[in-house]
């Protein structure tokens, strides 16, 4: 089937901004003096020069008592203990895997912090070390939780729960980490017939909902034979395009905003959702519904 | 040729109608791509530049390059085949682009707080879409914007500007390609405009040392002016993005 191809001029670009007029906090840019008093402590995004506290990134001020930091609106992922992340294995080493989590250094997944098949109380043997590549190899996607942060800023992950582990069939979307809203749970079973993992690191995984809850997505089983039905795949594709639309308009991503976008997108077919005008339309409608829900 | 085409006319106008101390129009945009961590597009007159920043990320490839106390800054400059008057294939790594890459790295390392990111690497890719004089300064300015968009800590903006001397007397700001061809020495300065530190200075030909001070002063003034323009653009971009996200996670 021949596809209709749209090529547009730069001048016809759609303005994707859905900015609502609100109180705008003061914006600091690199080199700008934050305060001239030296009783404050310097936090992230600031530095001290000639007695002045200056900003080193472009963003907004955050103050906790005496600690002043400037938070940029966009940056690499800064991990915190307990965050849910989605990552890709980049390397298999002695007793550990290296995982790319969009952080500034690769994260570590220790062999001792995964649940190997055969129950939690299984003893680890030297054989497991040789089997590591059978469990996870380069290029595999995993979901995990941040266990601790090392002194150099790299993360240590763990998958010691059935909800974490190797990901099998689904779609990965990469967005800026700052667009993911922190919430109590980052695993969502959406009623529309797909599930979603909103990794705090900006990696989003959409996958068909698993019906028998006992294996979940966890573990190391990757069932590639299982056929995902067409309606399910269409739902996943639509979810993906909705998330892209929200991302293009720089809107926060969480279960409600994604569901609203999904509902508002019903008037378009899935491929139509990639047209910039449709994306902005969906984003604006979602924004309206969110602000309505907020005000009521 | 330089006889009938003066750099500065009697009434003080240049070939493109600017006065001696006027910059070309600067238009810029942050966050033009979604794949890199930061990106920017900058137009300075007809010179058009795209810049993309990846990182800080784990050092890939040659592991031994990684430093324990600072991030590695890696710059790559390239020109599109259609960027100049004649269409020409420019292989990567020719002498001119290598030189500009090195100069770019020098200017950016002076501004980036590399000590915050040990064992990491920051990649800066700059592509010239349309070359119309002052390529290097425009690249520095675009790269600064891209770094800010990526949220990489900088001491301050790093801006660059060119200046020249017309009629052996009047210092002239922001030289276009046409003026470069007609002649006259061109001084390129990259500076940290707020503290007034010069991080890179280059001269295309020699001129009398008596003139250096005023031409340099003019170029630094240009850097400060450019900083104001970039600052405005960054603020409006942040405001735009922040309003869309609803200033989430902020107090």
UniProtKB/TrEMBL annotation, chain A:
Keywords noted in UniProt: Exosome, Nucleus, RNA-binding, rRNA processing
GO terms for MF: RNA binding
Residue ranges annotated for the S1 motif domain, each copy included: 82-160
Keyword Nucleus attributed: yes
GO biological process per UniProt: CUT catabolic process; exonucleolytic trimming to generate mature 3'-end of 5.8S rRNA from tricistronic rRNA transcript (SSU-rRNA, 5.8S rRNA, LSU-rRNA); nuclear polyadenylation-dependent rRNA catabolic process; poly(A)-dependent snoRNA 3'-end processing; regulation of gene expression; TRAMP-dependent tRNA surveillance pathway; U4 snRNA 3'-end processing
GO cellular component, one term: nuclear exosome (RNase complex)
Name of the featured protein: S1 motif domain-containing protein
Annotated source species: Zophobas morio
Automatic annotation (TrEMBL), chain B:
GO molecular function, one term: RNA binding
A single cellular component GO annotation: nuclear exosome (RNase complex)
Domain Exoribonuclease phosphorolytic: 22-153, 157-221
Provenance organism: Zophobas morio
Transmembrane segments: none
GO BP annotations listed: nuclear mRNA surveillance; poly(A)-dependent snoRNA 3'-end processing; rRNA catabolic process; U4 snRNA 3'-end processing
Short name of one Pfam family: RNase_PH_C
Protein family membership: Belongs to the RNase PH family.
The protein's name: Exosome complex component RRP41
CDD domains: RNase_PH_RRP41 (cd11370)
Domain of life: Eukaryota
């Amino acid at each position: 089937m021949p596809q209709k191809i749209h090529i547009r001029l730069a001048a016809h670009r759609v303005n994707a901004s859905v900015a609502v007029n609100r109180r705008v906090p003061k914006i600091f840019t690199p080199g700008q003096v934050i305060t001239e008093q030296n009783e404050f402590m310097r936090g992230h995004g600031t530095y001290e020069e000639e007695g002045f506290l200056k900003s080193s990134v472009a963003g907004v001020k955050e103050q906790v008592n005496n600690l002043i930091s400037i938070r940029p609106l966009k940056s690499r992922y800064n991990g915190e203990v307990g965050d849910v992340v989605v990552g890709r294995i980049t390397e298999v080493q002695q007793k550990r895997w290296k995982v790319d989590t969009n952080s500034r250094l690769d994260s570590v997944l220790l062999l001792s912090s995964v649940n190997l098949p055969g129950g939690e109380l299984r003893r680890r043997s030297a054989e497991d070390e040789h089997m590591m590549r059978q469990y996870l190899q380069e290029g595999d996607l995993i979901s995990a939780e941040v266990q601790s942060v090392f002194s150099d800023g790299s993360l240590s992950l763990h998958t010691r729960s059935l909800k974490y582990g190797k990901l099998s069939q689904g779609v990965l979307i990469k967005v800026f980490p700052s667009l993911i809203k922190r919430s109590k749970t980052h695993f969502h079973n959406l009623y529309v017939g797909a599930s979603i993992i909103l990794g705090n690191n900006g990696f989003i995984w959409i996958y068909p909902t698993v019906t028998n809850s006992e294996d979940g997505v966890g573990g190391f089983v990757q069932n590639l034979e299982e056929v995902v039905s067409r309606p399910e795949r269409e739902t996943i594709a639509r979810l993906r395009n909705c998330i892209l639309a929200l991302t293009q308009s720089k809107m926060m991503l969480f279960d409600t905003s994604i569901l609203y976008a999904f509902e508002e997108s019903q008037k378009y077919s899935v491929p139509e959702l990639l047209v910039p005008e449709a994306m902005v339309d969906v984003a604006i409608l979602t924004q309206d519904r969110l602000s309505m829900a907020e005000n009521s | 040729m330089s006889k009938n085409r003066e750099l500065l006319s009697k009434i003080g106008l240049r070939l493109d109608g600017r006065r001696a101390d006027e910059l070309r129009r600067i238009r810029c945009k942050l966050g033009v791509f979604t794949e890199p961590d930061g990106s920017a597009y900058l137009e300075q007159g007809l010179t058009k530049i795209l810049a993309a920043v990846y990182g800080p990320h784990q050092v890939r490839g040659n592991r031994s390059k990684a430093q324990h106390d600072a991030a590695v800054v890696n710059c790559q400059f390239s020109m599109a085949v259609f960027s100049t008057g004649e269409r020409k294939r420019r292989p990567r790594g020719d002498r001119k682009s290598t030189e500009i890459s090195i100069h770019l790295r020098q200017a950016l390392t002076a501004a980036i707080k590399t000590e915050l990111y040990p064992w990491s690497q920051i990649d800066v890719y700059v592509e010239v879409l349309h070359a119309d004089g002052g390529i290097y300064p425009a690249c520095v300015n675009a790269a600064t914007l891209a770094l800010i968009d990526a949220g990489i800590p900088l001491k301050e903006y790093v801006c660059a500007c060119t200046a020249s001397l017309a009629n052996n007397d009047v210092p002239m700001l922001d030289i276009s390609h046409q003026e470069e061809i007609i002649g006259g020495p061109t001084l390129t300065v990259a500076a940290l405009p707020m503290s007034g530190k010069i991080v890179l200075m280059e001269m295309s030909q020699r001129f009398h040392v008596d003139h250096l001070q005023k031409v340099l002063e003019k170029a630094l003034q240009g850097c400060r002016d450019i900083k104001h323009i970039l600052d405005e653009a960054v603020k409006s971009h942040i405001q735009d993005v922040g309003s869309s996200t609803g200033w989430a996670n902020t107090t």
